[in-house]
Amino acid sequence: MSPSVPPRGRTGRPPRTSRAQIMTAARRLIDRDGWRKLTMRRLATEADAAPTTLYHHFRDKDDLLAQLLNDYADTIPRPDLPDAPRERVLVAATLIHDSLAAWPWIVEVLAADDLTGESALWMVEAIIAGAIDCGCTPEEAVDLYRSVWYFTVGEILVRANAERRRADPQRPNRRDAVLGEADPARLPHLAALADRWPALVSRNTYPQGLRALVDGLLPHGHTEE
User: Fold this and answer.
1) Nearest 5°: phi and psi at 108?
2) CA end-to-end span of the chain
3) pLDDT for position 84
4) Is the pLDDT of residue 46 over 80?
5) Nearest-5° angle of CA 66, CA 71, CA 75?
6) CA angle 129, 147, 209 (to 5 degrees)
7) What is the pLDDT of residues 144-201, one digit of tens each?
8) CA–CA dist 79, 90 (Å, integer)
9) Distance of alpha carbon 102 from alpha carbon 60, whole angstroms
């Protein structure tokens, strides 16, 4: 009888879970449950790794989120920006909007914890530089950027929340119900628009709103060649 051969198994020290594997697990967890429910312990479970392994790659949850932001920003294409400074502002702002709208949870992180990804700062630089080239003072350029940022964040969050509501057929739409019961004597315009309201507010008006906002904040005497 041949001697029995012991079954092969894992020998030695198990391989450490890589940073890329942890980041993938973090994105999966956030997409499923939301970033506010992300903890290092839950992430360790999701990544099938020991909690101590995570701290070989990240100091804490904030460091993890910051690295997620940077990794995502690194994937954003960096197009050639227009020479005209006003158009440069509009293109950079639109790029910020479109990039963040593809992953709305990032907006919540940026707005809630004041984290930012260093890899995305070139877009902010483009807006500030464009505003200064249009005749803004540095302080006015920052004011313009902040106004564009607030407008962009609000538009993305409102639209993302609306999409979540529409995706849940069991969730009643109280807004439409309230508008449908609007008293024409007190609220004639809203009552007249009630049936069309859902379609009207679902339109993408970000480009027009952004252009109007930027035009209103740039020096009125500025003209582009």
Assistant:
1) -65, -40
2) 93
3) 96
4) yes
5) 140
6) 100
7) 999 999 999 999 999 888 887 777 777 767 888 898 899 999 999 999 999 999 899 9
8) 13
9) 25
Q: Measure the CA–CA gap between 97 and 116, rounded to whole angstroms.
A: 15
Q: Which two tokens stand for residue 125?
A: 């630089």
Start-end of H helices in the chain: 19-33, 40-47, 51-54, 61-74, 85-101, 105-113, 121-133, 138-167, 174-180, 188-193, 197-201, 206-217
The alpha-carbon radius of gyration of the chain (Å, integer) is 24
| Residue 161 vs residue 138, higher pLDDT | 138
Angle between the N-to-C axes of helices 85-101 and 121-133, in degrees from 0 to 180, rounded to the nearest 10: 150
Using one digit for the tens of pLDDT, what is the confidence trace for 48-102?
Answer: 999 899 999 999 998 998 888 888 888 888 899 999 999 999 999 999 999 889 8
What's residue 115's pLDDT? 58
Question: 28 and 68 in contact (C-beta within 8 Å)?
Answer: no
Residue 192 is encoded by which pair of tokens? 């007249």
Burial of 118 (0-12, 13-18, 19+ CB in 10 A): exposed
